[in-house]
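Exercise: predict the fold of this chain.
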Amino acid sequence: MDLYLQFDKLLTPAEVEVFRGFVRRRLEGEPVQYITGEAAFRLLELAVTESVLIPRPETEILVEAALSFLSERVEPRVLDPGCGSGAIGISIACEHEPARVTVTDIDPHALRLAHSNAERCHALERMRFICGDLFEPLGEPARFDAIVCNPPYVRTADLVGLDEEVRDFEPHLALDGGEDGLAFYRRIAAPASLLLEAAGGLFLEVGDGQADSVSGLLEQSGKYEGIEVLPDLASVPRVVCGRRRTGLE
Protein backbone atom coordinates (compact mmCIF):
# COMPACT_ATOMS: atom_id res chain seq x y z
CA MET A 1 0.00 0.00 0.00
CA ASP A 2 2.82 2.40 0.86
CA LEU A 3 4.24 1.91 -2.64
CA TYR A 4 1.03 3.36 -4.10
CA LEU A 5 0.71 6.14 -1.54
CA GLN A 6 4.35 7.18 -1.97
CA PHE A 7 4.81 6.34 -5.65
CA ASP A 8 7.52 9.02 -6.10
CA LYS A 9 9.70 7.58 -3.32
CA LEU A 10 12.69 5.55 -4.45
CA LEU A 11 13.07 2.20 -2.75
CA THR A 12 16.30 1.31 -1.03
CA PRO A 13 18.08 -1.89 -2.14
CA ALA A 14 16.92 -3.56 1.07
CA GLU A 15 13.30 -2.57 0.43
CA VAL A 16 13.53 -3.86 -3.15
CA GLU A 17 14.77 -7.21 -1.90
CA VAL A 18 11.96 -7.45 0.65
CA PHE A 19 9.41 -6.64 -2.04
CA ARG A 20 10.90 -9.23 -4.37
CA GLY A 21 10.64 -11.76 -1.57
CA PHE A 22 6.94 -10.96 -1.18
CA VAL A 23 6.41 -11.40 -4.93
CA ARG A 24 8.25 -14.75 -4.93
CA ARG A 25 6.12 -16.01 -2.05
CA ARG A 26 2.93 -14.95 -3.80
CA LEU A 27 4.01 -16.62 -7.05
CA GLU A 28 4.50 -19.81 -5.05
CA GLY A 29 0.85 -19.62 -4.00
CA GLU A 30 1.23 -18.34 -0.45
CA PRO A 31 -1.89 -16.42 0.65
CA VAL A 32 -1.50 -12.65 0.80
CA GLN A 33 -2.60 -12.65 4.45
CA TYR A 34 0.36 -14.81 5.48
CA ILE A 35 2.74 -12.66 3.45
CA THR A 36 1.55 -9.42 5.05
CA GLY A 37 0.90 -11.10 8.40
CA GLU A 38 -2.55 -9.52 8.70
CA ALA A 39 -6.17 -10.37 7.91
CA ALA A 40 -9.35 -8.32 8.19
CA PHE A 41 -12.33 -9.74 10.09
CA ARG A 42 -15.45 -7.69 10.83
CA LEU A 43 -14.13 -4.58 12.63
CA LEU A 44 -10.70 -6.03 13.34
CA GLU A 45 -7.25 -6.22 11.78
CA LEU A 46 -5.74 -9.43 13.11
CA ALA A 47 -2.24 -10.84 12.95
CA VAL A 48 -2.11 -14.24 11.25
CA THR A 49 0.60 -16.85 10.83
CA GLU A 50 0.60 -20.34 9.37
CA SER A 51 -0.33 -21.61 12.85
CA VAL A 52 -3.91 -20.46 12.28
CA LEU A 53 -6.55 -20.41 9.58
CA ILE A 54 -7.08 -17.15 7.75
CA PRO A 55 -10.43 -15.79 9.03
CA ARG A 56 -13.20 -16.14 6.44
CA PRO A 57 -16.17 -13.86 5.68
CA GLU A 58 -18.48 -16.83 6.29
CA THR A 59 -17.41 -16.90 9.93
CA GLU A 60 -18.64 -13.33 10.33
CA ILE A 61 -22.17 -14.77 10.01
CA LEU A 62 -21.44 -17.06 12.96
CA VAL A 63 -20.33 -14.09 15.07
CA GLU A 64 -23.35 -12.04 14.00
CA ALA A 65 -25.72 -14.81 15.12
CA ALA A 66 -24.02 -15.07 18.50
CA LEU A 67 -24.01 -11.30 19.04
CA SER A 68 -27.73 -11.11 18.30
CA PHE A 69 -28.37 -13.83 20.88
CA LEU A 70 -26.18 -12.12 23.49
CA SER A 71 -27.42 -8.58 22.93
CA GLU A 72 -29.86 -8.49 25.85
CA ARG A 73 -27.77 -10.51 28.31
CA VAL A 74 -25.93 -8.80 31.15
CA GLU A 75 -22.23 -9.71 31.30
CA PRO A 76 -22.68 -12.94 29.34
CA ARG A 77 -19.96 -15.57 29.53
CA VAL A 78 -18.89 -16.89 26.15
CA LEU A 79 -16.66 -19.81 25.14
CA ASP A 80 -14.78 -20.03 21.83
CA PRO A 81 -13.18 -23.51 21.73
CA GLY A 82 -10.48 -24.00 19.10
CA CYS A 83 -10.00 -20.26 18.76
CA GLY A 84 -7.15 -20.07 16.23
CA SER A 85 -6.38 -16.40 15.61
CA GLY A 86 -9.05 -15.41 18.13
CA ALA A 87 -11.25 -13.83 15.46
CA ILE A 88 -14.53 -15.11 16.93
CA GLY A 89 -13.86 -14.50 20.60
CA ILE A 90 -12.16 -11.14 20.14
CA SER A 91 -14.94 -9.88 17.88
CA ILE A 92 -17.53 -10.77 20.52
CA ALA A 93 -15.47 -9.14 23.28
CA CYS A 94 -15.03 -5.96 21.21
CA GLU A 95 -18.56 -5.67 19.83
CA HIS A 96 -20.37 -6.64 23.04
CA GLU A 97 -18.17 -5.22 25.77
CA PRO A 98 -20.16 -6.64 28.70
CA ALA A 99 -19.22 -10.15 27.49
CA ARG A 100 -16.52 -12.13 29.24
CA VAL A 101 -14.91 -14.50 26.75
CA THR A 102 -12.90 -17.67 27.32
CA VAL A 103 -10.97 -19.16 24.39
CA THR A 104 -9.14 -22.47 24.10
CA ASP A 105 -6.79 -23.94 21.53
CA ILE A 106 -4.73 -27.12 21.45
CA ASP A 107 -1.87 -25.33 19.67
CA PRO A 108 0.13 -23.09 22.03
CA HIS A 109 1.41 -21.04 19.06
CA ALA A 110 -2.15 -20.29 18.00
CA LEU A 111 -3.14 -19.40 21.55
CA ARG A 112 -0.22 -16.99 21.91
CA LEU A 113 -1.24 -15.33 18.66
CA ALA A 114 -4.84 -15.01 19.86
CA HIS A 115 -3.57 -13.44 23.10
CA SER A 116 -1.48 -10.96 21.10
CA ASN A 117 -4.45 -10.13 18.87
CA ALA A 118 -6.66 -9.52 21.89
CA GLU A 119 -4.05 -7.13 23.25
CA ARG A 120 -3.78 -5.17 20.00
CA CYS A 121 -7.61 -4.99 19.83
CA HIS A 122 -7.86 -3.77 23.46
CA ALA A 123 -9.93 -6.79 24.51
CA LEU A 124 -7.40 -8.55 26.72
CA GLU A 125 -8.93 -7.58 30.06
CA ARG A 126 -12.26 -9.17 29.06
CA MET A 127 -10.78 -12.48 27.92
CA ARG A 128 -9.25 -15.66 29.29
CA PHE A 129 -6.89 -17.95 27.33
CA ILE A 130 -6.48 -21.65 28.07
CA CYS A 131 -4.30 -24.14 26.18
CA GLY A 132 -5.95 -27.48 25.51
CA ASP A 133 -8.30 -29.47 23.30
CA LEU A 134 -11.82 -28.01 23.01
CA PHE A 135 -13.49 -28.32 26.45
CA GLU A 136 -10.86 -30.48 28.16
CA PRO A 137 -8.80 -27.70 29.80
CA LEU A 138 -11.78 -25.98 31.40
CA GLY A 139 -11.90 -26.10 35.16
CA GLU A 140 -14.96 -26.78 37.26
CA PRO A 141 -17.41 -25.24 37.49
CA ALA A 142 -17.52 -23.79 33.97
CA ARG A 143 -20.81 -22.41 32.70
CA PHE A 144 -21.40 -20.19 29.68
CA ASP A 145 -24.28 -18.29 28.15
CA ALA A 146 -23.02 -19.13 24.68
CA ILE A 147 -20.53 -21.47 23.03
CA VAL A 148 -19.45 -20.26 19.59
CA CYS A 149 -17.26 -22.54 17.51
CA ASN A 150 -15.88 -22.98 14.00
CA PRO A 151 -14.48 -26.52 14.22
CA PRO A 152 -12.51 -28.41 11.55
CA TYR A 153 -15.06 -29.77 9.09
CA VAL A 154 -13.26 -30.86 5.91
CA ARG A 155 -13.40 -34.59 5.22
CA THR A 156 -9.92 -36.11 5.47
CA ALA A 157 -10.12 -37.49 1.93
CA ASP A 158 -11.05 -34.03 0.61
CA LEU A 159 -7.96 -32.27 1.99
CA VAL A 160 -5.89 -33.20 -1.05
CA GLY A 161 -8.44 -31.57 -3.35
CA LEU A 162 -8.56 -28.22 -1.58
CA ASP A 163 -7.40 -25.07 -3.31
CA GLU A 164 -3.59 -25.03 -3.28
CA GLU A 165 -3.46 -21.88 -1.17
CA VAL A 166 -5.43 -23.67 1.53
CA ARG A 167 -3.99 -27.17 1.17
CA ASP A 168 -0.33 -26.17 1.06
CA PHE A 169 -0.27 -23.33 3.58
CA GLU A 170 -3.11 -23.42 6.10
CA PRO A 171 -2.85 -25.77 9.11
CA HIS A 172 -4.46 -29.16 8.49
CA LEU A 173 -5.04 -29.45 12.24
CA ALA A 174 -7.65 -26.69 11.85
CA LEU A 175 -9.16 -28.19 8.68
CA ASP A 176 -9.35 -31.97 9.11
CA GLY A 177 -12.80 -32.97 10.36
CA GLY A 178 -12.23 -36.72 10.12
CA GLU A 179 -13.59 -39.33 7.75
CA ASP A 180 -16.97 -37.68 7.21
CA GLY A 181 -16.11 -34.15 8.35
CA LEU A 182 -18.33 -34.47 11.42
CA ALA A 183 -15.85 -35.77 14.00
CA PHE A 184 -15.65 -32.53 15.96
CA TYR A 185 -19.39 -31.93 15.92
CA ARG A 186 -19.85 -35.33 17.59
CA ARG A 187 -17.33 -34.32 20.24
CA ILE A 188 -19.09 -30.99 20.79
CA ALA A 189 -22.84 -31.67 20.66
CA ALA A 190 -23.68 -33.42 23.94
CA PRO A 191 -20.72 -32.21 26.08
CA ALA A 192 -21.42 -28.56 25.22
CA SER A 193 -24.83 -28.80 26.87
CA LEU A 194 -23.13 -29.52 30.20
CA LEU A 195 -21.27 -26.22 29.94
CA LEU A 196 -24.25 -24.06 29.02
CA GLU A 197 -26.43 -22.12 31.39
CA ALA A 198 -30.19 -22.67 31.19
CA ALA A 199 -31.32 -21.64 27.68
CA GLY A 200 -27.70 -20.98 26.75
CA GLY A 201 -26.90 -21.03 23.04
CA LEU A 202 -24.62 -23.25 20.95
CA PHE A 203 -23.48 -21.74 17.64
CA LEU A 204 -21.57 -23.84 15.11
CA GLU A 205 -20.21 -23.00 11.68
CA VAL A 206 -20.70 -25.87 9.22
CA GLY A 207 -19.35 -26.77 5.80
CA ASP A 208 -21.31 -27.01 2.58
CA GLY A 209 -23.87 -29.80 2.79
CA GLN A 210 -23.36 -30.43 6.52
CA ALA A 211 -26.19 -28.41 8.05
CA ASP A 212 -28.73 -31.25 8.12
CA SER A 213 -26.24 -33.70 9.63
CA VAL A 214 -25.10 -31.29 12.33
CA SER A 215 -28.69 -30.29 13.13
CA GLY A 216 -29.43 -34.00 13.43
CA LEU A 217 -26.59 -34.48 15.91
CA LEU A 218 -27.99 -31.73 18.13
CA GLU A 219 -31.49 -33.18 17.86
CA GLN A 220 -30.34 -36.74 18.58
CA SER A 221 -28.44 -35.62 21.67
CA GLY A 222 -31.76 -34.59 23.24
CA LYS A 223 -30.00 -31.61 24.81
CA TYR A 224 -31.19 -28.75 22.58
CA GLU A 225 -34.33 -27.00 21.43
CA GLY A 226 -35.03 -24.22 18.95
CA ILE A 227 -32.49 -25.65 16.52
CA GLU A 228 -32.02 -23.37 13.52
CA VAL A 229 -29.93 -23.21 10.36
CA LEU A 230 -28.77 -19.79 9.17
CA PRO A 231 -27.48 -19.00 5.65
CA ASP A 232 -24.39 -17.04 4.71
CA LEU A 233 -24.42 -14.16 2.23
CA ALA A 234 -24.40 -16.65 -0.66
CA SER A 235 -27.52 -18.34 0.77
CA VAL A 236 -25.47 -21.43 1.71
CA PRO A 237 -26.53 -22.98 5.05
CA ARG A 238 -23.60 -21.94 7.24
CA VAL A 239 -24.53 -21.79 10.93
CA VAL A 240 -26.37 -24.33 13.07
CA CYS A 241 -27.54 -23.09 16.45
CA GLY A 242 -29.70 -24.28 19.29
CA ARG A 243 -30.55 -23.50 22.92
CA ARG A 244 -29.94 -25.77 25.87
CA ARG A 245 -33.18 -27.59 26.48
CA THR A 246 -35.13 -26.42 29.52
CA GLY A 247 -35.39 -28.87 32.38
CA LEU A 248 -31.93 -30.41 31.93
CA GLU A 249 -29.94 -31.04 35.07
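Check your answer against the key: The first strand starts at residue 38 and ends at 41.
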